[in-house]
């Protein structure tokens, strides 16, 4: 389970075809090993907020969200910039845009939520519902407004001020139309995620609020029981 609060971006180092799918090797940007961090632990000019993130706790079998897609870490290496490998099964290749990423592309990274961690976003499973395209990007003051096509299969789950995960980022629907919706992006989110690398026409992953799905299914079950009486 994830929160949609992106920890850092990653850079695809290598993308290769593998039997039954595709394999990605990703470098975690803005991170370093604990050993490297220890070498400048006494740097009085660096604040805690500025300290690089450590990804040394990654291990084989751990879940990680890569641009909103829950994947399993199969290999990991520490170093000046930690790297890890994930495997994309055929279904993942077909249903997400990760099947077309190439070396140099930026992705969003979030490790699975720890049981004692603060829950700052919303419930994100890493199970992408669909993809869509960016139809507009506009600078509004210090913020940005991103507009997207609204796929028909998820339109019933999209409501104004509701939550949605876009490329794994927990965001709030600012505006919803018949076939489109928009979100407002604050500078921190823009700067610390791959949204700063996106252009009109680029694909993104969408995951709707799973609570809406549960409510829908409960209502359907109740309606079926009433109809059967």
Main beta sheet strand tally, sense and closure = 6 strands, antiparallel, barrel
How many domains would you count in the coordinates?
A: 2
The number of helical runs is 4
Q: Helical percent range?
A: 10-25%
**What is the terminal-to-terminal distance?**
38 Å
What is the CATH topology assignment of the largest domain?
Answer: Elongation Factor Tu (Ef-tu), domain 3
Radius of gyration: 19 Å
**How confident overall, as mean pLDDT?**
90
Regarding quaternary structure, what we see is single chain
Reported CATH architecture of the largest domain: Beta Barrel
Strand portion: 35-45%
Major sheet strand order: 1-2-7-6-5-8
Order of helices and strands: EEEHEEEEHEEEEEEHEH
Task: Note the overall shape.
Answer: globular
Give the tally of β-strands. Answer: 14
- Name of the level-1 CATH class of the largest domain: Mainly Beta
Supply the helix-strand structural class. Answer: alpha+beta
Organism: Halobellus salinus
GO molecular function, one term: riboflavin synthase activity
Pathway: Cofactor biosynthesis; riboflavin biosynthesis; riboflavin from 2-hydroxy-3-oxobutyl phosphate and 5-amino-6-(D-ribitylamino)uracil: step 2/2
Protein name: Riboflavin synthase
């Amino acid at each position: 389970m994830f929160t949609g609060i992106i920890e850092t971006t990653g850079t695809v180092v290598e993308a290769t075809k593998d039997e039954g799918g595709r394999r990605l090797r990703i470098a975690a940007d803005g991170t370093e090993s604990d050993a490297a961090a220890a070498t400048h632990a006494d740097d009085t000019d660096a604040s805690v907020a500025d300290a690089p993130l450590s990804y040394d706790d990654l291990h084989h079998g751990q879940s990680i969200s890569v641009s909103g897609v829950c994947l399993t870490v199969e290999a990991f290496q520490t170093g000046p910039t930690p790297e890890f490998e994930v495997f994309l099964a055929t279904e993942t290749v077909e249903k997400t845009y990760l099947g077309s990423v190439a070396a140099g592309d930026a992705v969003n990274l979030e490790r699975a939520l720890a049981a004692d961690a603060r829950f700052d976003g919303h419930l994100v499973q890493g199970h992408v519902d669909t993809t869509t395209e960016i139809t507009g990007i506009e600078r509004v003051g210090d913020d940005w407004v991103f507009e997207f096509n609204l796929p028909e299969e998820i339109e019933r789950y999209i409501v104004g001020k509701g939550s949605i995960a876009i490329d794994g980022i927990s965001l709030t629907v600012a505006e919803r139309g018949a076939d489109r919706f928009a979100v407002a992006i604050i500078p921190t989110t823009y700067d610390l995620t791959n949204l700063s690398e996106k252009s009109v026409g680029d694909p993104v992953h969408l995951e709707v609020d799973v609570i809406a799905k549960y409510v829908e299914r409960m209502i359907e079950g109740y309606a079926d029981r009433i109809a059967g009486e």
